[in-house]
Amino acid sequence: MDLTSTATSTSGRAMQRKRTRTDNTEMQAYTSIAEMTETTRMTEMPSTQFFAMAELVEILAKSLDASSLINVAMTNRFLFEILEHLLWPELDLCDPNEIQRRLHSPKGREALYRSIGTVRHLKLHVSALHYLVDSMARYSDENHNRPTTIESNFDPTSPKGKTKTLATLPWRGPDWLPELPLVNPLTVALPPITDLCSLDFEMFDSQGQNIFPAATAYTHQEDFSETYYRSLEIRGELELTWLLSHNTALTRVQLNNYAFSSIDVSLHFVRAIARLTSLQDLDLNLRLCEMSLHSILRILYCNLPASLETLRLRCRYYTGRKSDMVIWQSDEGLFAPGDETGPIVHRRGGPLKYLKSIRIVFDHKTNEWLLGEFVRSCPALEAISPPLWPGENCHLLTEAVVDRCPRLRELDNCGHGSADILKALPDDSLDVLSNHSFAAGDKVNPILEMVAMQHCRSIRKIRLVQCQHIDGKTVRSILMNCRSLEHFSVQDKDRSSIRLKDLVEGEWNAVRLKVLDITVELRQQRYTAAYLRKQGQAMPAVTEGTWERLKKFYRRLGALKDIEVLNLRIKSKELQWLDESGQVRPAPPSNSSGKEIDDDWNSDSEPRTENHNSADATFPGFLSLGDKRAGRRGYLKLLAGLTNLRELRGHVQATTSETRWTVGRREMVWMVKNWPSLEVIELFPADGEMGKCRQHLDWFEQEHKNICVKQATPLV
């Protein structure tokens, strides 16, 4: 009895504990579910508030390209109202289609007037600027909604007298104008463009003429003085000055073919430039007579904003109308004729401590003292492009660069001035040597030789475009001595080519190359019939020595482990080296003497300007793995070390007389396997003629769509 009661009580307590544990588990489950629900409810509220439909559409639309964004915005009115401000960050009025869409319809002008304040990057020429101002003024006049801020222009060329104005408010000069009595003030209602960050302006449109209809002038054109429309250039200068003066947040300004018509225009333009306190990049391409250049440079150098980082100044002279712009330097400052009481423009308070790059290209010699003094105010200068002056006229500029520019690392323009500066620089202090315009004179080879000797440990980049002929010995010296060289490019294939035998002589120490862009001159060694009969040999077109040079050249290319871009071009009179079966193509002798013919020119130092069509030429054996049974040579395996190769360009087509028979699927598979970083290989010509391509080339294009296999531009 006692045992039974004890067992019953024990079982009851166990059942009670089990029910208690079950109740606790259910309570914990309910509690955790409630907490999760509350947490979800708390996290959903801000998400719902943040991801409103309009904001969500705007966030997603920022990832679209321009055409897709326009298509989405034109779907319905709701999306257009949300995305309208995203359609105007960049406005290109150099494109006639853009002008037709934006300005040639009432709705387009309405949208432009409503959103012109959101434009950040503006590109236009003088005709587009006229049309923009006229369209905005016409729209405001038609809707009786003039801007609250009345801007002003002036006409320094019109005679004294009363000039009618469009606006009813009295004329008030802006703050940036000097305290001078301006002739015939003119008030015009202009669009509120005040938040630009970038401005590209061309004094002439791309077609060289006005592309707009005759109705470009304002509706009340008769209200303007006739002298104001006497020159479109004058009006363009005035409107451009107004545009610069009201966009002080500009960081980049590029002006092409700009000419100053009067002294007043130049002073107001320079004063507007001086007020751009955030300007970092200034590119001026001027058209001036020689008398005006010194005056413009003087006031420009003294008034550049202190925030400037890059200055590109180009000038070409023209023999047009006479200019009365004469400004001279006195003890008290810069003065203009008729106003000797004080300086007409203010001087910058300090040096240009942020200016790092100066590129100056002039047609003729200008004031060297002025340029030297300007360089002395640029202590942070890292790159300079001196004008192409004779060497004896550059000593002041050279002294300024050496004394006041200790950070100089880049030299542009391989010309007379560059030679003097390079000679005066400390050893191993130059990093980049390049030219962005034609390098005149005979100083190119001496400059490269000085670089190879004095800056062989520091030079990293040599990029030459449109230069004079470069000797093969000079190129060989660069490749043998410059150990830190990473970029070597000589892109003018019509003038500068490097002979194959100069490339393979000596040992290359430039093993860190990442970009190699050169033109190789292939010359076949040919022998006369009489000479070959004495040797008891048949007449070859490509001798064994030439094959050995090619093999040595390919082996050196394969040793460039860091190479990323390889652009190899051919210059040769003998275009087709191999026949359709991959065998040497015989060539007839060029004369009857027993003399070896190795050169087509007398000396390597002579400029070679012949332009031979090498469109059907490839480097012999470059793209082939070879076939010993067929006696076909192939050196593609020598390039197996180019694991970082991204671009292979130049005469490497697989559709020439040689390669369309010697390059097969085996070579294609080998390239993909051994060059894993490959993005571009120019196997197909740019003209798109692929009908003669074999099946393996089509297979390569289909299987590897991420690799571009077509030339960007035709090779000549």
Automatic annotation (TrEMBL):
Highest taxon of the lineage: Eukaryota
Source organism of the structure: Linnemannia elongata AG-77
Endpoints of the signal sequence: none
Coiled-coil residue spans: none
Protein name: RNI-like protein
Disordered: annotated segments: 1-24, 580-616
Biased composition (Polar residues): 1-13
